[in-house]
Design a protein that fits this description.
The protein has one domain: Arc Repressor Mutant, subunit A (Orthogonal Bundle), CATH 1.10.10. The strands form two sheets. Strands 3-5-4 form a three-stranded antiparallel β-sheet. With about 120 residues, the chain is α+β, with helices and mostly antiparallel strands. The chain is globular, with a radius of gyration of 17 Å. About 30% of the residues lie in helices and about 20% in strands.
Length: about 120
């Protein structure tokens, strides 16, 4: 049985050789939906995408949190300072088909739950 190749990060990519990374594919970054976003909105998407995790066994995905990404209000305030700007950027990500709102927690005083969407592929 062959040993699994361990990929190492370049020195400019990470402070460790094998740290966690966030994957964004080139075709998404070249899509009209992505190019329609401001840099701040792209940064918000990357921040949300950083929270995505998968559990794998023998290279097969067992589970993930694709539709269970929580973003509490205090975290949004730390990122933005102003919730109106955060909501406007979040709404732009929803309109462009990159994320979807699974659950708004304002009435239950819980964190908002977001999910990833592939509607960006049909954005015009």
């Amino acid at each position: 049985m062959a040993k699994r190749i361990k990929y190492r990060h370049e020195s400019f990519e990470s402070s460790t050789e094998q740290g966690k990374f966030t994957k964004i594919c080139d075709d998404m970054m070249e899509s009209p939906a992505w190019l329609d976003l401001s840099l701040r909105q792209q940064g918000l998407y990357l921040y949300i995408k950083k929270k995505y995790t998968q559990k794998k066994s023998n290279g097969i995905k067992i589970s993930d949190n694709k539709d269970d990404i929580s973003l509490p209000k205090r975290e949004a305030i730390l990122l933005y300072g102003d919730l109106r700007t955060f909501r406007a950027d979040r709404d732009k990500l929803v309109a462009n088909g990159l994320i979807e709102i699974v659950q708004l927690g304002w009435n239950t005083r819980t964190a908002n739950i977001y999910g990833f969407s592939d509607n960006w592929k049909s954005f015009q």
